[in-house]
Each structure stands twice: as structure tokens, then as C-alpha cells.
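Notebook, p. 212. Picked up where the previous page left off. The plan for this session was modest: take the two constructs that came back from the sequencing core last week, fold each one, and keep the raw output in the notebook itself so nobody has to go hunting through shared drives later. Recording the first one now, exactly as returned: residue sequence, then the C-alpha cell string.
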Amino acid sequence: MTERPLVRFLDRTTPPHILTLVLMAGLGAMNMSAFLPSLPDMTTYFETRYDVIQLSVSGYLAVTALLQLVIGPVSDRFGRRNVMLTCQSIFIIATLGCIFAPTVEIFLFFRMMQAAVAAGLVLSRAIVRDMVPQNEAASMIGYVTMGMALVPMIAPMIGGALHQAFGWHSVFWFLTSGGVLVMALCWLDQGETAKGGGIGFREQVKDYPELFTSRRFWGYVLSAAFASGAFFAFLGGGPYVATVEFGLSSFWAGVCFGAPAVGYALGNYISGRFSMRFGVNWMIRTGALIGFLGLSVSLVLTLIGLSSPVLFFGFCTFVGLGNGMVIPNASAGMLSVRPHLAGTASGLGSAFMIGGGAALSAFAGAAIQGGGGSVTLLFIMVSTLLLGLVAILYVMWREKELERSG
């Protein structure tokens, strides 16, 4: 495709409008974080332990990681529109199942089904690649990401306010309404953009050994996985710290959960402004160092008794700032290691990043049950960020070795 196709809003014979793409991606981001302020009360409602109800975060991330691998090839074969509408239907049914679930086991089953909405995150980028030439795709994806970046800031606030006013079920009614509206918009506006020619899942798997043997690829993957892992650990333990340790209301807990997103937006801006000038490795190292040092200061202050919700959540902004610098540049690094395997590298990298986040989220949720509260959570996050820093330092060392060997 050599020129931008005609786009008419609410015309399903043309590609979707950028507003539709933003809402497709944004609903997935909203579903991930809107109910976080409700987790402690949901623990009481279902008469279970916090580490069990926290599986609604870590298990959801694990299923999302698997979907990262298969949604692209499936939509190549069956069409972006058909896959998106199917996944939206599953999401709506699953969200209603969460509302009426009588036990925590049934709730968690439907919560895993909700991960179908992650198709919006994957397909919005795939549709952009279908619509515009390669040199324009990055810019357009940037607009989609920019709109999506606002969602994690406001979703916990909305969820916390709804919970405080009407209880936790209202958050899932809100998500159901959002699912219905986005599905209707996709039905009316999302024309098919897949032209065929994409590789299938079996062909994608054949490329795995070449990537798995690249130490630089693993270095970039691990730097991104550990950086995002610190944030997902925050998602796993933050609700408990906010409500149990600091005694925040659902609304104020929701406000605090937006802190990393503020930093992430700033980090993304810095990446867009300076990555070309300083290079991806420098940006990753700097972002990892910022996150590590910021959280280390927070840990020291907490250990000497200067613990408060303002300090704890304020310093968590550094996690988002570091991630905003690490993740875009590490993603670019993954794709550059084997340019002819860029699509496979993207799917594998995302799967490892989110899958690792699922494991760290579950670990953090379980670990704080043993005592320590914010100290335990901060220690997990600091350790994770340090490992991410080590990973990118290894990549930089490896590149120097390759240069010396010619």
C-alpha cells in the first residue's frame, strides 16, 4: 500500500477512524486497572484471601500474554473485523459473568475470559500497519498510544469513585457498558483492512530458535520485562498497601494508582524527543537507572520511618517514568536484532513482558501477605528494576564485543 486509504467515520466499507482505534485499545487498558481499588473489598465479599482475589490481575495478565502470540496470526486468516467483534462479544459476556459470579472461583473464570478484550490492544496496531505505509505507521500508532496512555490515569479514579458510591459491582457494570459501546462502534465503523499474506502461527513458531539463540534479543526482552514487571508488581500489591496499610478510601486509592501513568506519559514524551539523538541503549539504561534510584530512595525513606501514601505513591511515578523510556526503546531493540523476524520478535517480546509481569504480580500479592507491607513491595520492585538495569548493561557489553570481533 503506497498511500493512505480513505477513511469515513461510521462507514464500515472504509478502514476505522482513529477514534475507534483509540477506544478499542483503551477499553483493554481500562479493564486492566479500573477495579484495582475494589480488590480488598472483593476479598471480603467472596470470603477469600487477598492473594487469591489478586489472581484476577496476575491470571488476567497471563492469558493476555498468550493472546499476544495468537491474535495477530488468527486475524490475518479470519480478518481483523471478525476477530475484534468476536472478542468484544466474549468480553461483554465475561464481564456480566463477573457481576453475577456467586463464588470467587467462578469470578476468576470469567475474569480470565475478559482477557479477550486485549485483542483491541493488538489489533489497533495491526490495523494501522494495514492502513498506512511503513514510514507513517509509527506516527499513527503514536497517536493511538497517546490516547491510550490517558486511560491508566483515569480508570482507577473512575473505578474508585464508582466503588465508593455504589459498590464493586458498579465497576463491572461500567465496563459492560463500555464494551457494548465499543462493540457498536466497531460494528458501525471498522471496515476490514487485512489483505492476507500474513504468516500463520505455525510459521511464526519456526522462527523462534533463531531469536532464542540471540543474546542481544534476550537482553532487550529482559530489560523490558523487568521494567514492566516492577509496574505489574505494583498492580499486584498496591491495592493492599493503599487500603490496608494506609487506610485510603477507594476513591483516593484510585487517584494514587494513576501516579505511575503520569510518569509513563512523561517518559514516552522523552523517548519520542531524544531517542534518535542518544540511541536506544542509552535511553534504556537511563530509564532503568531512573526507576531504580527513585524506588531505592523510597525504600530507604520507608525503612527509616518516613512512610506515607504521598511518599510511597509519589515515588512510584519514577517507575512509570523509567518504563516510558525503557519499553519503547527496548521494543525497538528487539525488532532490530533480526529485522527479518520483526513480527515474531514483537509477539514474543510482548508475551514475555506481560507473562513475566503476571508472575511478578502474583508474587507481590502473595509476598505482602507475609508482612512487611510497603517495605516488601518496594524491595520487590527495586530488585526487579536492578535486574532490568543489569540486562541492558549486558546488551551494551555484548555489542562492544561484537564490534571488536568485526
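Okay, moving on. Second construct, recorded in the same format:
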Amino acid sequence: MAEVLITLGIIGIVAAMTLPALLNKADEYVRLQQFKKVYNTLNNALARSFADNGGYYYVCYYGQNKNFTECENLLNDLKKILNIIKVCEDNALRNGCVSPEMKGFDTVRDREPDLSDEEWEDYSKRNCGGFMEANIKTRNPAWVLPDGSIIGFYGPEFSQLFWVDINGLKGPNKWGYDIFGFLFYNEGNSLVKVVPMGKGSCACVEKGGRSGEGILKMMY
């Protein structure tokens, strides 16, 4: 009897030590599948827009001066194709399109140490205003998709930069875990795709997380 109790005790200790790691792995796998689904959904929507219109809205990609009429047309196309169920034109937090836990480029503190505090602050002030927390929550538009995932844009008008919360208002609502930055990118030959941002971009990565670019490399 004593040997059985000792064995059960050992099993319990081993389980207590390994269970958290297994749960973390399971959560990571689920988020990986959610990332893959969102990534494919966005690119399929862009391809559908191409098929419906006989071409892409070529000026609506990152690094290109926008033609606001064409970008507005693409915006409306994507709204229909993605079957958006809720639109927050502004005040996304108050209107339920953004989680209260979500941080911005300027308020993430527990981050990957790629930049010093001084470099991070300077970089965010110069280049990443659209991803600052106040702008995300009170100024910029956001969409809610039928599966609960959320798209938030970099500015108050349609932008070629945006973030996606792949599991919506569910936790952890952290950059590099379930929130990732994306952009419309021209790969040449007029091929426009949705691609994830990497480290060092305005899409920050909180400590222990991965950039969307890193996850995409894992997937393929």
C-alpha cells in the first residue's frame, strides 16, 4: 500500500510539473491555427475582390501614395466579402470592438528587448502613432468578423496598415500572442497580398510572444 501511495505521489508531482507546459503548448497550437485561419481569410478576401473587379486596387498597398477613391472601394469590397458584423468608426473600446487589456506601441512595457527604452520611445513617437493605445481605443476604426476576430486600422481612414486580434475579445489580448500587425504589400507584377509585420515594425511583440512574420515562417 505504501508503495502504491508513493507511486501515486510521484505521478502527481510529475503531472503538476508538466501540465502547465502542456497547456501552454495546447494554447499556442490553438492560436497558431487561429492565425492561419485569419491569414488565409484575409488573403482569400483580397483575391475575391480581384476576381469580382477584374483586378486589384493597385494603389492600396503599403509604401504607395493612396488613391482615396480606390481605397474606399476596396474597403467596401472587403466589408462585404468578410461579412463584417460590427463596425466601430471610432471609440472602439467604448463600442466593444477592442479589449480593455489591449496595449499600444507606447504602453507595452513587458516587451522583447530589441530596442532600449530611449530608442523605443523615440521610434514610437516618430513612426507608430496609429498603433498608440489611445488612438487604437478612441480614434481608429475597427471591424468585428463573424468568427469574433477583430481588425483595427492604423488611422481614422482606411489604411494599408492594420492589426488583427485573432481570437477577438478573449484573452490574453497581447501583441505577439493573439494580436498581430499586418499590411497590404505589393510583391511585384501587380500581386497584392496581406502579409504580417516582423520585429522592429510598429507591431510590437510582448515578452514571450512571436511576430506575425515569425509565425508565418513556422507555418510554411
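Notes on construct two before I forget. Residues 2-219 form one domain.
Flagging for discussion at group meeting.
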